[in-house]
Amino acid sequence: MAAKEEDVKLIGSWASPFSRRVEMALKLKGVPYDYVDEDYLVAKSPLLLQLNPIYKKVPVFVHKGNILPESHLILEYIDQTWTNNPILPRDPYDKAMARFWAKFVDEQARFRSLVKAGNRTEAAIEETRELITFLEKEIMGKKFFARETIGFLDMVVGSMIPFCLVRGWESMGIDMIPEKKFPELNKWIKNLKELEIVRECIPHREKHIEHMKKIVERMKSA
Ligand SMILES: N[C@@H](CCC(=O)N[C@@H](CS)C(=O)NCC(=O)O)C(=O)O
């Protein structure tokens, strides 16, 4: 099916975890789409400002004229529109908990406080590891958060933690998720990397670390 027939457009940014997860879902579902990359650190395009005038953020998803911001809502919309390879759990409790953990990872400011502050203190590293311990317990004994195959929570946590924040922490010389301390999460990261749809969507490691270095410097001087 050609992109034109489906009429799907994603306005994203290569280093944005919120955009990366949307691409993972589209690739898992096999939905063709047109992609527009925003360099929002330099300037926000008129297209972005027109499509997301409230938050002015990527990603923005456009399907047959429907305009949708906010990555969690976009993932849910994609899941309900293209029902093959479901990403959200069917069970109401599992679905609510997937949303709970996704919100925790995206909205718990302490996950990002080290990168934002730009300076490493042992106390801040320990505080971040305390949060990561909750995820280590949650993934225990499972291949993916969604159990056997990648799902909504894997896309949210994966795009944010190993394929974004870890690179920011690395750029500051911090090994935040050492295998000895977090064996289950490390197994899960390996499982994610084995998936082509994940490899295709995550930023190039070295380029990303350089980018995160710039972000950290920018935050420091802000
Ligand atoms: N809650 C939003 C967050 C989106 C977001 O923060 N996007 C960042 C890129 S990683 C952005 O566009 N930032 C531009 C800005 O803050 O002005 C989502 O889940 O989509």
The assigned CATH architecture of the largest domain is: Up-down Bundle
Distance between the termini: 46 Å
**Helix amount, in percent?**
55-70%
**Largest beta sheet: strand ordering:** 2-1-3-4
Radius of gyration: 17 Å
What general form does the structure show?
A: globular
Largest sheet: number of strands, sense, barrel closure: 4 strands, mixed
String of helices and strands: HEHEHEEHHHHHHHH
Query: What ligands can be seen in this structure?
Result: glutathione
Describe the structure.
It is a single chain. The protein is an alpha+beta fold and 222 residues long. The chain folds into two domains: 3-81, Glutaredoxin (3-Layer(aba) Sandwich), CATH 3.40.30; 92-221, Glutathione S-transferase Yfyf (Class Pi), Chain A, domain 2 (Up-down Bundle). The chain is built from eleven helices and four strands. The protein has helices at 3-6, 17-29, 46-51, 71-81, 92-107, 113-117, 122-139, 152-171, 183-193, 196-199, 205-221; strands spanning 8-12, 34-37, 60-63, 66-69. A four-stranded mixed β-sheet has the order 2-1-3-4. Helix 7 crosses helix 9. The protein is globular, with a radius of gyration of 17 Å. The model has no long low-confidence stretch (mean pLDDT 94).
Describe the secondary structure blueprint for this structure.
Layout: H1 3-6, E1 8-12, H2 17-29, E2 34-37, H3 46-51, E3 60-63, E4 66-69, H4 71-81, H5 92-107, H6 113-117, H7 122-139, H8 152-171, H9 183-193, H10 196-199, H11 205-221
Parallel strand pairs: 1-2
Antiparallel strand pairs: 1-3, 3-4
Helix pairs in contact: 2-4, 2-8, 5-8, 7-9, 8-11
This protein binds glutathione.
